[in-house]
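Please, structure for the following, as tokens.
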Amino acid sequence: MKKIIYAILTIALLFPGARMSAQGKYGADSAECIKYLSYYSEYYKQKNYDEALPNWRKAYKLCPPTANQNMLIHGSTLLKQVIAKTKDAEAQRAVVDSLMDLYDVRAEYYPKNKETALNNKGLDMYNYIKDNPQRLYDTYQNIIGELKEATKPSIFLFNLNAAIDLFQAGKLTAEDVINTYQSSMEMLNASTPENEADAEQLEKVKTDVESLFITSKVASCENLIALFTPRFEADPNNLDLVNNIVKMMSITDDCTGNDLYLNAVTNMYKLDPSYNSAYFLYRLNSSRGNVADAIKYLEEAINYPESDASTDGDYNYELAVFCSKNGQNAKAYAAAQKAIDLNPTLSGKAYFLMGTIWGSTNCGGNEIERRAPYWVAVDFLQKAKAADPSLTDDANKLIGSYSAYYPQTAEAFMYDLTNGQSYTVSCGGMRATTTVRTQK
């Protein structure tokens, strides 16, 4: 107690005008304000929160918010202690309301710290308010409206979750939720993380927001067509609108085979030719069975200089799969090779695809020339296993099947070939060097 009294006297000496002025930083009763600020502060420093709380309450009642910002910061810690110990639901809600008010007071009186105060409010609302999606949504909308892209990423996720709850309760329309999702992604994409950890968290939240939106099924294809058709017809050359339509319909199940999507993608490509718009045209044509056009647009996407090596690798692998399914093995084989060169993380599945391409290729010629492609197929399947062990079981099954088609030793001998000898296979526009293997 002596220590506390000494602290009070020290503060009084430092602020002599507080006792003489009826108003000011410490309010009408400045001496009492300073006294209780000191009382609670000493207990707070000792982490004796039970003793700090009643003194803090008196300080908060007596002192204006301008007296000390720490009074507001410490108060949030103390009120959280109370919330954790309060079992009665109604009493707990009252303390939570006080905590939220405290954040608003700090945001109002200390504008330099408004961002921190409102972000903390948003995070604590999610922690403490579980049964009131309307309150959550309204408050998050206000916070986001104030802070824009400076809003903590997770608050966008909480906001969308509240919007979906309100939609399911019939209190928001599908358009409201779609707009909430779109504005959230725009602001998340505009955010500037301060460090690598923040950047990782931002990417995680963006993924979570998109996943939540997709799994909510709010944006059914029917909803999107009803929402965007009149907008598109009214302003078909609005690039932002067209991009939104394409993106939304692309992430919605079974929503790329309609006329709105076709027209939007086509206009996007006309308005802003890019690897992205070319890729969407590939997807559109591939879904409609337009093989030649699909290949043309995907190759255009790959050839755009704006796309990076990793993206080009992904696109080449997708081109390889598409061409393979549509009987264009030579083009598929070449694309798979490029995919590996551009993005080595694709090696396993690209080698596996190359193995199946050679394994399904029918070559003419003599007995050896007809069977040699199986040697190449097994070579690539072995590479696939080495690059991606998860492919081992599937690769081994195919290796067993293809090995059954190896020539007999006597057949190889007739063509002056022996096991382990180098052999070049050229067939169907493809070429590879392998080694001779015969059935054991």
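Strands lie at 422-427, 430-435. Residues 131-216 form one domain.
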